[in-house]
Amino acid sequence: MRLRFAAAVLLSASLVPALARAQGADSVGTRAQGMAGAFVAVTDDASAVYWNPAALGKGAYFSLVMDGNRAETVPDSLPALSGGKRSGYLLALGTPALGLSYYRLENKIVNRPITVSRSAFQLDTLTTQHIGATFVQSLTDFLTVGSTVKIVRGVAGTGLIEGERDEILDHADVPGRSTGKFDLDAGVLLSGPVGRIGLVVRNISEPGFEVERGGRELVLDRQIRGGASVLLLESWKLAADFDFTKQAGPFGEVREIAIGSEGQVTRRLAARAGIRFNTAGDDHAPGLSVGGSFAALGSLLVDAQITGGSDKAFTGWGIAGRVVF
Question: Which domain holds residue 28?
Fold first, then answer.
């Protein structure tokens, strides 16, 4: 029995391509997730170091963000085949000319290979820690550009594990190899009196992290995302984001469109909501998000969000604290 399982492990590893799915674009930012990820042209606090570095130049004079998000997708319609789990944590400081950041992304994907027994899953894990400095330059009164230079430490692992899908996602782990890489994000923002247009390119060098054995890499795919926002009322805005590139997800390719809105309800309370779709496949996997902010003490804001929707969409929650002035 053990020999058969070991042979299946080797056969499965030999049939897996050299590049494997890695981390999605929407892992960071409670405020962003409250708008379903329609945030490239909206961000105006320190989370811009991730969502659009150029936006720091048109944002707050000073901002500090501490943020955490968790999400998973475990479809009831595919109870024994695949699923995913991810989390993102951000600590960032921003000024109009400079930003400093640390964020940690963790991604787990389980799939049942066709060459292995019905009790075994392949588990891919990738945890990356990013330390970055963001630099912003205003080219005109309306146009800013920015870039985030990063050191990325990644731990990648893959292996076959026997058990139930949900238990593997929640508790299982595989040996990983730690690797350090340099990477770069870049953004541009065009601002006007009634709205903004932005573009961000993340993971420009597409850093790959080799697993402990098997010669495979888990790669941070290059992500190109555009966005636009418009002021509907003095305190309400509508925004939309769209991916120019496809990413590999738990159930196939992902290329999202997100639409969201954010506004001030009272002097101390803001609300936001959004919806996103996958345009890359037959199953659009819509996800719905709602969130809000409460001004607890002067410039201290507390954010929260929850995301639901299709059982093939990532659903979860997030909470953050921001100091903005």
Answer: 2-324
